[in-house]
User: Fold these one by one.
Assistant:
Number 1:
Amino acid sequence: MRIDGVWHRSVRIDEADGWSVRILDQTRLPWAVEWLRLVDEDQVAHAIRSMQTRGAPLIGATAAYGVALAMRRDPSALEGVCAMLAETRPTAINLRWAIDRMLGALRNLPVQDRTAAAYAEAAAIADDDAATCEAIGRNGLPLIAEIAARKPRVNILTHCNAGWLATVDWGTALAPIYMAHDAGIPVHVWVDETRPRNQGAALTAFELGAHGVAHTVVADNAGGHLMQHGQVDLVIVGTDRVTRTGDVANKIGTYLKALAARDNGVPFWVALPHSTLDMRVGDGVAEIPIEERSPAEVTDLTGRTADGRIETIRVAAAGSPAANPAFDVTPARLVTGLITERGRIPATPDAIAAMYPEKAA
């Protein structure tokens, strides 16, 4: 993503020392752009849990670098470190995928060789994610171009943040949008605020604005109204886990957007990298673990006051309890199709198995 005209990745090795890890503190966005320096696996775990870094592909890549940092300190601690990092967030399967890949690369090496190998494997995971997301963008671009051929402007609705900030580079759901914009296609994005953490209003709006993409922030419940009035041509969302049957876990509220899209004949596409597929799961509603986060994310809001201070205030009635399921599952029957790095496919078991035979096996 471009920030002040400079292209950045969301996670990288610190150029100053060549071993520590830099991430953008997403809890400070959009108010401030601050790069955190992480020096050990405990700081990486905290960054993932606290959502200083977030997004299914990005937490996988960041956790991989956490393993590398741990190997620099104690290369004999591989199994324990990987187990600890794998428990930081339960829903996004990319985290477990990246940890398993690190284990596979390091487990049988002599301890003295693990540090260099860990850094190399973490870098390979990050490069793979960037290349995968760029390919997702290319494969999703024709969906937007086809609409642009018959309309003066393409209106796309997205939920949560599935852009550069959720991946190493490009994004999943936003990658086709960036490519359309860069190709000169007039595109406009309806950005769901995405309560309770407001990842849409704070993060998606920030990165679209930084890239120069036209967008409008709307309340989460406005999507159905916009669809009823013909103001949404296409819905594209990301995902934290896709089952072998095509069920999709994504930020809470995605299921309702899919229902509204189906009722109004609006295509509902899901963009995902290979690391998000979980072939072990068949029934997403019954089997995908849904993270329950702090009630304070629902009862409290953080924002900038008129005099520039960042403050947190309570918006719920005093004494009222709150529940905070962070994700929901959209059944495959509501998904028009999947945009992957290998192409676009229906959200069906046969199509997924044919596109990813090595995973099906």
Number 2:
Amino acid sequence: MANNNDDENNDPQKNQNDDENIESQMNTLLDKQFFDPDSDSNQDNWFALLVKNDYEAAEAIYVGIIGIVGVIVSQEMLRYFKYGGEYIPFGHVSSGNLF
């Protein structure tokens, strides 16, 4: 009986179908447009207007925000790794001296 369950779980056809299903779901997610500046809901959105009128500036602002958030998150991850249990989020772990 236990051997029968193992055969069902290790069925290559079922595993292939599961892999194809996951791949199609991932492709659908990646192909989904998450920001449409021409949408009716974005008519009064300042960023949508900036994308339409000055794409390069909107791109620079977007990349800058993503970069800043990435730097802050990576700094906090490094602090957590360095200080472990004594980690204080967005805080200082120092004696008050500059060096």
